[in-house]
Amino acid sequence: MDYTRTEMRKDIVLRKLKERGHRITKQRMVLLDIILNEECSCCKEIYYKATEKNPDIGISTVYRLVNSLEEIGAISRSDLYRIKCDTDEEADVVCTIELTDGTFRTLSESSLDVVIAAGLQAGGYVREQRIKKITLIPHESDEQKRQTGSTRK
Fold first, then answer.
1. Using alpha carbons only, how large is the chain's radius of gyration in Å?
2. How many Cβ atoms are within 10 Å of 74's Cβ, its own excluded?
3. Mapping DSSP to helix (H, G, I), strand (E, B) and coil, where does residue 93 land?
4. Is the pLDDT at 99 greater than 80, yes or no?
5. How far, in Å, CA of 93 to CA of 153, rounded?
6. Less packed terminus of the chain by CB within 10 Å, N or C?
7. Residue 145 banded pLDDT, cuts 50, 70, 90
8. Which contiguous run of DSSP H or E holds residue 101?
């Protein structure tokens, strides 16, 4: 992995954590380095690797950091705890979804296709067909409607 790129990603994650009021401790830095640079499939695996570097790190610290990283949209448990943001404009993210609990989910083009296809199939909208093209129509905010005088719904 390219060192400069890793540091840039780490800086973005650290900034997002600070914005949410998290202190950046030595233990969190060790955990971030592990998550950034190693393939881990669960919190226990992160914990075992972390205690080799710092035996004072507890499993609850790992779980709390993983939850915090998930809340800011930096990781997804389905993506083997890999940091997702490459730059301020996440590289191949085409869709960000904010959930009612304040968490975010970011989807790449291929992930968005999978999610929409599964929803279409579950809803009975498609049988054997596959998605050829998706066209997104931007939602006009209430403020934009007032400014343009638009009444379109």
1. 19
2. 24
3. strand
4. no
5. 27
6. C
7. low
8. none
- What backbone torsions phi and psi does residue 98 show, to the nearest 5 degrees? -100, 130
Nearest to 84 by CA among 101, 105, 109: 105
Q: Where are the alpha helices (DSSP H) in 1-153?
A: 3-19, 26-37, 43-53, 59-71, 109-122, 142-148
Nearest CA-CA partner of 71 in 143, 2, 20: 20
pLDDT tens sequence across 31-86 = 998 988 887 778 888 999 999 999 999 999 998 888 888 877 777 665 444 555 54
Farthest CA pair distance, the chain: 63
Residues in the chain: 153
Q: Residue 40: name the closest of 96, 99, 81, 92 by CA.
A: 81
Angle between helix axes 59-71 and 3-19 (nearest 10 degrees) is: 90
